[in-house]
Every structure is written in structure tokens, then in C-alpha cells.
Amino acid sequence: MIGLKDDETRLLPLMLAPAVSYIALLIGFPFVLSIAYSMTNISVGTTELKFVGLDNFISVVGSQTFWVALKNTCIITLVSQVFVVGLGNVLAGLLMADFTGKWWVRLLILLPWVAPISLGSIGWLWIFDSIYSVINWTARAIGLLGPFDWPIWLGQPDLAMASIIIVNVWRLLPLATVIILAGLSSIPQDIHDAAHVDGAGFWRHHFEITMPLVLPITLIAVLFGIVFTFTDMIVVFVLTRGGPYDTTQVLASWAFFTGIQGGDLAEGAAISLFLFPVLVAVAILFLGVARRTEVT
Amino acid sequence: MAIVEARNISKKFAEVTAVEQINLTAEEGEFLVLLGPSGCGKTTLMRMIAGLEQPSAGRIVIGGRDVTDLPPRTRNIAMVFQSYALYPHMTVAGNIAFPLRARGTSKVETAERVTWAARMFDIERLLDRKPRQLSGGERQRVALARAVVRKPEVFLLDEPLSNLDAKLRHSARDELKQFQRNLGTTTLYVTHDQVEAMGLGDRIAVLNQGLVHQIGTPQQVYDRPADIFVATFIGSPPMNLVELDDVVLGFRPESFLPEEVHPAQDGRSRLPFRITRSEYLGADRLVYGVLEPPYPPTHVISKLPTNIRVEVNSGERHDFAVRLADLNRFDRASGRRLAEDGEAASATSDLT
Ligand SMILES: Nc1ncnc2c1ncn2[C@@H]1O[C@H](COP(=O)(O)OP(=O)(O)OP(=O)(O)O)[C@@H](O)[C@H]1O
Ligand SMILES: [Mg+2]
């Protein structure tokens, strides 16, 4: 019994150490490094580091591609979240119903989430392929496409954006569905029964009872989705490489192309730092929502 | 206001039969209590009347209209759930207004009715709060207000008092009865608390394992139980049972008194009794013991008001007695009450 208190005070830092060192090494260090890089002239071949202040940021903001990438990042993130939440609600609602094979359907729906993003995206690369596109051939076979229509999914700027959004929706829908499903099943049956007896019809029940009650947890799903889409470069990298002519570039992919493939580490670091304020805002929202759900 | 009838209602879940062939009628304006042990099918029966559960067989008739195949919202009933089921994201006012809005009541009338219902349950100062900011008793009032606000034909109350502490429960019971009297709405009330049932019910339906064992006034159910189950389920401590050949004799502990102080001078039956121990409960004494020959050695209990000052000591033998009119006879095989001379058949029957 003696020394138990001492043990605890020693145990506490010991238990926290893995988490703290994980954050410090894998998140803190790269973050500090990229702030440092963004203010130098570092590139792959630099031998002599020079402090350049905010020059890199100024050059990034002055570039046409930056604004395209910023716009694309926002559009892709927002549009895909709208679809994810809408479809996630519908899907979760359907999965709440009792039917045989429910377990398998849930597993199938969750699969895109557990599959590596790059593998999934490569699959989609084939679906959108300019010659073999399953979509086009199917559409022609059932007469949706005329003999001279042949959309080049990844080659036309609008369609390329749509393709990227589709893949993002496909990838994020499972997580959102499962989160919303958890929210739906946490509503006590009595509440639904009370609404029935109180005379609520389908729409009133859905919009005034069910939706508000799953809203907090849906917000969590949205925030997750925003973080994942906003920082993702793999989908763009695999599908379009930012093309045609940088029209589908997003911040993360452009940072990668500039910093790693283009060798300009400093400017790449500067670009990626533009993700930071958005992610901070999302994180603050996260905490707010988490606290609110705690209370109810 | 309407008559509620359950005609031959049965409900089978996968393996369990929750409700079996129940026939039940709640008269206009009546307060009918469904009483039974946990799991006997009370909630299931009530949910079928509400339309939340489809019966496997039988019909539900409310106000002369067969509503078996109609959804809950067309039945004009109000239900108070054991958990109260308040909408957690709405204020108290929003909760009470919800059934009205669902019926398309005008804004002005909704506001009026909400105020009326809130005043009735004395919760006007809570109207802007969320359910989570209320105490159990306040939630219960809100749930009741939400139920009365639309002036339904029938109230269904599923153990609405079970979440309250003993003291609050007592006053809530009183108010509940009061407001039901005032509104005169037919009410079905589920409980497994016999004191609640006796105090509230115009009539009590005693259920066990999906079957109705007896329907009658509290007095009928207590004094003339239809079978051994009802006899032992109602009353605390339960009715004493003594097996004599193929008849089971039953008498309440409070009618089993020392012979010398027995109020009835004649028409009583003497039972010699060996006392094993006694308990002092304030207003009463419970005297435990075993019957002596000619009766089989059965454990029985006597409940003596404390103002009866007869000495009853452990280990002693004492002559006790029961008024003949207080003796119940049951058939040993079926457990059913044996009709006595002059006793109306209806009192023994469980079918109404
Ligand atoms: N949805 C269901 N599926 C399967 N069995 C059920 C279902 N609902 C109730 N039952 C069963 O039916 C029987 C009656 O249940 P019910 O809820 O009506 O009991 P109760 O009398 O209300 O009990 P309590 O006093 O504990 O509330 C129980 O054996 C229960 O397990
Ligand atoms: Mg119940």
C-alpha cells in the first residue's frame, strides 16, 4: 500500500507517453518542419538554406492554379458531403428496417470504407476509362447515349470534377451511413411510438422527430467527411493527376506535385499550410458538437 | 369519450404468446386498471389497443368502430409511456403542442390549448425548458399534459407512476384520479402495483401469462377472487391457503384473528394455531405460525391491528377464527373459485 501514490504519479506519464510521442513525432514534427520549410528557399537540390520570409506564400497566392485548387477543394468537399449526408440518411433509414441478410448488406456497405483508397480509385479509373468505361457502354446498350455521344469522364473538366466527387461519395458514404445508423438506433422506440400515437405522419415524423435527434451525430459524420475530403490527394492523383490542365487540382494534390514531384519543397509546404486554418475551424466545431451531444 | 373493447385478442411473438384470447371492455368514462406481474402482457395489450402492435387474432373496437387495421393516429387515443417518451429536442411547450400541430390545429388554438393543459398540471413555469431539465415528477406532468391537450377519446397509461418516488407517487395518484374524473375520459391504466390498482381503478382486470383471470371492482377482486392466482397476487401479505382434500380454503390475514377478540360472534370457523414468530409493523402486527389439527400443518399469517392487545407469544398455541363469510373456497385441481350459495355467478366469473 505504501508508495501506491508514488506509483500512480510515475504511471501517469508512462501511460501517456506513447500517445504524446506519437503526436509529437508523426504530427507535431512534420507540422513544425513544414512551417520552417515554407519560409525558406529549400528544394530537393538545395545545399544552402536561406530564410525568405513570406515569399513562398506570396508566390502561391499569386498563382492562378492556387485559386483553382482552392475552389476545387471546397467544391469537392461540400458537394460530396451534401450527397454523403443525403444518401447516408436514406441508406441508414433502409438499414434500420428488419430483413434477413441484414448483416451481409451492412458488411457490403462498409467495404468501400475498409478498402484502401488507392485500390478503390484504380477500380474507378477503369470505370471512367476513355475507351472501356463501363458507364458509357452500359448507357449506350440501354439507349441512353446516342451513337455520337461518348463522354470522356476524366478528360473533360466538368466530368472530371464530377468523377472525383463520385469517388469521394463512394468512399465516405459507408462511414457516414454507419454513424447515422448508430444515431438512429439510439433513439428509443418509445419516442417513435409516441409520435405515431400523437398523430405525426411520415414527413412530420421524419423531419420533426428523427432528423433533429440524429442531427448532432450526423454533424460528426460531416466533420469527419470534411477532414477526409479536404486533405485527400489520392483520388485526384489516381484519377486525373490534377488534369486536364490543372482544372481538377486540389490543394493537397497540388502541394504534392509542386513539393515532391516538382522538387520545390518550400512552396509545397506553403501550399499545404493553407489547409491548416480550415482544419482548425473544423476541429473547433468538432469539440463544440461533441460537448453538445454529451449534454443531451 | 368512448367504449373500448378488445374482442378475443391474441398476440404471439416468435415463441412467446404474450396475450391470449383476451376479452375486455372499458365502459364509457371508466377507469380500468390492468394489473398483473411483470411480463404478463399488459404493455402488449395496451400497445395493440393503441395500434402500435398488430394483434395476431381478434378485433379492437373503440367507440363502436373497428379500428384493428387502422394506424394509431386515426384512433384518437393518447398514450403516456412508462418512460414518458418526451421529445428531448423540443421544449415542454413544443412537446405539448406536437399532437395539436400534427392534427393541423390553428396556431391560436394550439397556444390556447397548450396554456390550458399546462395550467391543469401546474407546469406553466416550465414551458420553456427542455425535458432533460425536468425532474421525474415534472416530466410525468408534461407527458400527461401532452396526452390531454388534444382531448382524446381514450387514455392509455402504461405505468406512468413507476418512475416516481413513493411520496410523489402518492400525490400523483391522487391528481391523476382527480383529473380523470373531471375529464370523464375512458382510461386504461397499466400497473403491477396492486395498491395503485386498488386506489385508482373503477374496475381491475387481473392478468397473468397473457390471460385475464378476473375483471371486477377492487372490492370484488379483493373479497371474492376468481381463482387462486388472484387470491395470492392481490393483498399483502397474500391470502392464506389451506388445502383440504380437493378444496383449497382461503382467508385474508386480516380476517384471521384470535377467537376472543373476533368481532363476529357467530358464523365463524375456529382454527387452532401455533405461533412461531411475530413482526411489529407499527399499525399492525404480523403473526406467523402453523395450523394445528384437525387442519393440515399449513403456514399461515395473521394481521392484527396493533390496538388488539391480545398476548400472542412465540411457541404458544392459540385459537384463531375466521368469519364464514370471509372464507373463500377454490377447486384444488383448477384453482377456480367454488360458487357459494347465494353468491352471484358474475362475481366468480372472469368473463365480462
Ligand atoms: N417485441 C417483442 N418480441 C418478442 N417478445 C415480446 C415482445 N414484446 C413483448 N414480448 C414478450 O411478451 C411478454 C409480455 O410482455 P409485456 O411487455 O406485454 O409485459 P408487461 O406485462 O408489460 O410486463 P412489465 O410489467 O414488465 O412491463 C413477455 O414475455 C415479453 O418477453
Ligand atoms: Mg410493460
Which keywords apply here?
heterodimer, A: 296 residues, mainly alpha, MetI-like fold, 13 helices, globular, B: 352 residues, alpha+beta, Rossmann fold, OB fold (Dihydrolipoamide Acetyltransferase, E2P), five-stranded antiparallel β-sheet, 9 helices, elongated, binds adenosine-5'-triphosphate, binds magnesium ion
How do the strands and helices of this protein lay out in sequence?
The complex is a heterodimer of chains A (296) and B (352).
Chain A: H1 4-38, H2 55-62, H3 64-96, H4 102-114, H5 117-127, H6 134-141, H7 157-185, H8 189-197, H9 202-231, H10 234-239, H11 251-261, H12 265-273, H13 275-295
Helix pairs in contact in A: 1-12, 2-12, 3-7, 3-9, 4-7, 7-9, 9-13, 11-12
Chain B: E1 4-12, E2 17-26, E3 31-35, H1 42-50, E4 57-62, E5 65-66, E6 77-80, H2 92-102, H3 107-120, H4 136-148, E7 154-158, H5 166-183, E8 186-191, H6 194-200, E9 203-208, E10 211-216, H7 218-223, H8 228-233, E11 240-244, E12 247-251, E13 256-258, E14 268-280, E15 284-291, E16 299-305, E17 317-323, E18 328-331, H9 345-348
Parallel strand pairs in B: 3-8, 3-9, 6-7, 7-8
Antiparallel strand pairs in B: 1-2, 1-4, 4-5, 9-10, 11-12, 12-18, 13-17, 14-15, 14-17, 15-16
Helix pairs in contact in B: 2-3, 2-4, 3-4
The structure holds adenosine-5'-triphosphate and magnesium ion.
